[in-house]
């Protein structure tokens, strides 16, 4: 999160909500992005898969990534027209 903040993002920690809600809400350049942070070996829970499907149906930006750099790359992709970006 510190790296995202250093790069000018507003970062809201959502991980305590649970129930498939992504770990972070990241704001940058007038837009918000839902971000699921995973380790290299991490996998999605059934609730996370369900939430991802809801985001897809609603056309909401959803990112799953293992690093701040991946999150920033995904934000760039989304700004170019992709709505869901899984970096893992």
Task: Walk me through this protein's architecture.
The chain has helices at residues 2-6, 46-58, 68-79; strands spanning 10-13, 24-28, 31-37, 62-65, 84-86. β3 (31-37), α2 (46-58) and β4 form a beta-alpha-beta unit. The protein is built from 3 helices and 5 strands. It has 88 residues and is α/β, with parallel strands linked by helices. It has one domain (2-86): Trna Endonuclease, Chain: A, domain 1 (3-Layer(aba) Sandwich). The chain is 34% helix and 26% strand.
Which helices and strands appear, and what pairs or packs with what?
Blueprint: H1 2-6, E1 10-13, E2 24-28, E3 31-37, H2 46-58, E4 62-65, H3 68-79, E5 84-86
Parallel strand pairs: 3-4, 4-5
Antiparallel strand pairs: 1-2, 2-3
| Percent in strands | 25-35%
Output the CATH class name.
Alpha Beta
How many strands, which pairing sense, and closed or not: the largest β-sheet? 5 strands, mixed
Helix count from the secondary structure assignment: 3
- Second rung of CATH, namely the architecture: 3-Layer(aba) Sandwich
Order of helices and strands: HEEEHEHE
Query: Gap between N and C termini, in Å?
Result: 18 Å
Total domain units: 1
- Give me the Rg, rounded: 12 Å
Mean pLDDT, to the nearest integer, reads: 91
> What spatial order of strands do you see in the largest sheet?
1-2-3-4-5
Helix content: 25-40%
